[in-house]
Amino acid sequence: MKCAFASPRVSATAIEANEFPRLAEEMEVWAVPRIVVNGSPQWDGSVPEAVFLQRVLSAAYG
Amino acid sequence: MGVLRPEEEAKVRELFAGLERPVELVVALGPEETAMLGARDVDFGAEATRVAEGLAELGELVSMRVEEEPDGFPRFPSVAIRPDGEDAGVRYDGLPWGYEVASLIGGVLEAGRRESSLKPESLEALASLDRDLALDVFVTPT
């Protein structure tokens, strides 16, 4: 959310996995938080800010 | 019953008093996907509205409104967090409850800041983005 407030290029949605089971299944949500970047599942779990940014950017540009 | 316990309410009221700009919560209601077993008795939209109303009561700069099937919301219910009423692309899809109410509160606090709480190097990285990024974070309330 912080990234989205800080950049007009970023949007952020928290999605309650139990309420949207079809999408959760599609995104292979077996553990939370599950991070998905531009529709592509990336990783599970909380990470420090710098690691988060690095992973998100490498997913976007990878 | 309130959304938060009385002692939590007092704390959130204190935090919301420090907001530097208005924050609007937009509750988007519409057709809901059939959720988990045993949840049929829960009206997720009504509950999401109640949560947003409960938070809006705790801060002078926090407001809320409800919209029926607005554009740009693929799932319902959903709560958008808008700094100064502007769409910043931040939403919570589903009913925020349990620990997730804290996420929503955290979102309101960040939206209410004039300066981001991210580190300068993170802001630098975001400023250099030349493409759009859609981040989805799947969560559960417990």
Written overview of the protein:
The complex is a heterodimer of chains A (62) and B (142). With 62 residues, chain A is an alpha+beta fold. Chain A has helices at 2-6, 21-26, 49-61; strands spanning 10-16, 34-37, 40-44. In chain A, strands 2-3 form a two-stranded antiparallel ribbon. By secondary structure, chain B is α+β, with helices and mostly antiparallel strands. Chain B has a 4-stranded mixed sheet with strand order 2-1-3-4, covered by helices on one side. The mean pLDDT of chain B is 93. In chain B, 32% of the residues lie in helices and 22% in strands. Chain B is globular. At the A-B interface, helix 1, strand 1, helix 2, strand 2 and helix 3 of A face strand 4, helix 3, helix 4 and strand 5 of B. Strand 1 (10-16) of chain A pairs parallel with strand 5 of chain B, so a sheet runs across the interface.
Tally of alpha and pi helices of chain B? 4
What letter string, H or E per element, gives the SSE order of chain A?
A: HEHEEH
- Return Rg of chain A in Å: 12 Å
Helix content percent band of chain B: 25-40%
Count of extended strands of chain A = 3
Oligomer: heterodimer
Q: What name does the CATH topology of chain B carry? A: Glutaredoxin
What strand order characterises the main sheet of chain A? 2-3
Cα gyration radius of chain B (Å)? 16 Å
| Level-2 CATH architecture of chain A | 3-Layer(aba) Sandwich
Q: Supply the CATH architecture of chain B.
A: 3-Layer(aba) Sandwich
**Which structural class matches the secondary elements of chain A?**
alpha+beta
The major beta sheet of chain A can be summarized as:
2 strands, antiparallel
Helicity level of chain A, as a percent range? Answer: 25-40%
How many beta-strand elements of chain B? 5
How many separate domains of chain B? Answer: 1
Report the mean per-residue pLDDT of chain A as an integer: 94
Beta-strand portion of chain B reads: 15-25%
Specify the structural class of chain B. alpha+beta
Q: What fraction strand of chain A?
A: 25-35%
The arrangement of helices and strands of chain B along the chain is HEHEEEHHE
